[in-house]
Amino acid sequence: MAENPAPSSPLVTSPDAAAPPLPAEFTKLTFRSLYIRRTGPGSREMTVDGRPSDQLGRRFVSDFPIYDGRGSGAHLVARLQGVTVQIGSSHQLVSIVFEAERLKGSTLLTNGVITDGSDEWAIYGGTGVFAMATGVIRRRFLAEVVREVSGTYGMFEGATTLTSIRILTSSRTWGPWGIEDGTRFCITAPIGSSIVGFYGRSTSRLVAAIGVYLRQQL
């Protein structure tokens, strides 16, 4: 009478014989001196009002360019695109979409609170070169903003022109330039706003009138 063969024993592999785990590989990238341009060519923003009583839930939908410098010769690096919501503080949730050749199309996902000082925004993901990225963005607020423009105007060469101008910022006064003679004028930004640009009208060679663009600060 034939006997059934004994069942074969399961193969048990000793932990010591298992393949060693592969070491994790990380690449550290550091970007310095990048500038978000919140006004000017290529900058767009839409404001959606919040609750009338206290503006809870007010939203700023933004699309701002990021450059590698402050001057006219700076190069476009990326765009900051996302939403900032007022919930007590101003909380931003944005993507940084890169435009530079080597990084073009890659993104970083960030979240943080915006203040008038230095902020830290968390990087919690990304795509392309930055897939699975983590890190911190340190944003420094350029604290000097224009609060007031003043000066004088009067008749010169048969036309009404600006005869002097002075610019008051949050930290100092620039000017006056010109001769302070004529009727005085003063344009002051409302509380919570700042002057971010100028427009005007001129004669053939002199400034005849000036106006300002205002932007509400977050």
Q: Would you mind describing this structure in some detail?
A:
- By secondary structure, the chain is an all-beta fold.
- It folds into 2 domains: 106 residues; 71 residues, Aligned Prism (Vitelline Membrane Outer Layer Protein I, subunit A), CATH 2.100.10.30.
- 0% of the residues lie in helices and 53% in strands.
- It is built from no helices and 14 strands.
- Strands 1, 2, 3, 4, 5, 6, 7 and 8 form an 8-stranded antiparallel beta sheet that branches. A 4-stranded antiparallel beta sheet has the order 11-10-9-12, with no helix packed on it. The protein has a two-stranded antiparallel sheet with strand order 13-14.
- The N terminus is likely disordered.
Evaluate the radius of gyration. Answer: 29 Å
Largest sheet: 8 strands, antiparallel
Give the N-to-C terminal Cα separation: 92 Å
Q: How are helices and strands ordered from N to C?
A: EEEEEEEEEEEEEE
User: Approximately how much beta-strand content do the residues carry?
Assistant: over 45%
Average of the residue pLDDT scores? 85
Give the helix tally: 0
pLDDT below 50 for ≥5 consecutive residues: which ranges? 1-13
- Described by the principal axes of the CA atoms, the overall outline is elongated
Structural class estimated from helices and strands: mainly beta
Number of beta-strand segments: 14
Into how many domains do the coordinates divide? 2
Q: How helix-rich are the residues, as a percent range? A: under 10%
Subunit structure: Homodimer.
Pfam families: Dirigent, Jacalin
GO molecular function, one term: carbohydrate binding
Protein name: Dirigent protein
